[in-house]
Amino acid sequence: MSEQRSTRAVLGAADGDGLENLARVGLVSYGVVHLLVAWLALQLAWGTSSESADQSGALSTVAESPVGKPLLWIIALGLIALAVWQALEVLRWRSGWSASGDARSKAVKKSAKAVAKAIVYAALAVLAIRFATGGGGSSSQQQQSTAAGVFGWPAGRWLVGAAGLVLIGVGIYHVYKGVTKHFLKEIDLAEAPPTATRLVTRLGQVGYPGKGVALGVVGGLLVHAAVTFDPADASGLDGALRTILEAPFGQFLLTLVALGIAAFGTYLFVRARYPERT
User: Fold this and answer.
1) Percent of the chain's residues with pLDDT above 70
2) pTM for the model
3) Which domain holds residue 185?
4) Which residues cross the membrane (predicted)?
């Protein structure tokens, strides 16, 4: 009984205005990061920048601005709120773990999705804090170091390959989500005006496939790293975007992907205005 009361109290905190408002700040912060990555990708496509076109490059750009450090702390705080919110979603679905059939499958999938999002938000928050404190580094180098460390584990090569396949699957799901407009099922637009609904729909239709392609290529690089047993191939988002650039019609393709990532970032701005369906 006490455990149930504790769970209700935690879920009540998750629905509280304070955490919800912080999570909105987090969505806006996450959108800013995507817009900066898109800008760096466009510069990469047109040969006007050598900056890493990934999260570290985006946060480095923020750090170099006149209000860089305070803004980085705001971004980090918002992302931490998003991570906490997603972690609390696991409790929301915990009662379904002991169910059977479709109910259990749905609860497990929702819980796994929430955990994955919480990890991503927390990792990006840590990166923002590092840049705010002057200790930021390259995301690509960190990912290569991580891959090298995992290679030293028992079955590490298979783990890296499996992580790559998961990312490819996530990328494919993002494309599917955008094409089918499945993302609209996650947002409560009942009180949104028609213009806002159209805007969210168009941004999601462009943004999800754009991000999905980038994630799929990141996953492909991880699989290639596992096959070649070379951690240097696990070069993250920056490596993925450079791989797209090296493909036939790479400049055109990378421009399209960059515009898609920018659309996803803008989608997050509008997304922060409306609550999730629960």
Assistant:
1) 91
2) 0.88
3) 139-278
4) 21-42, 71-93, 114-135, 155-176, 212-229, 249-270
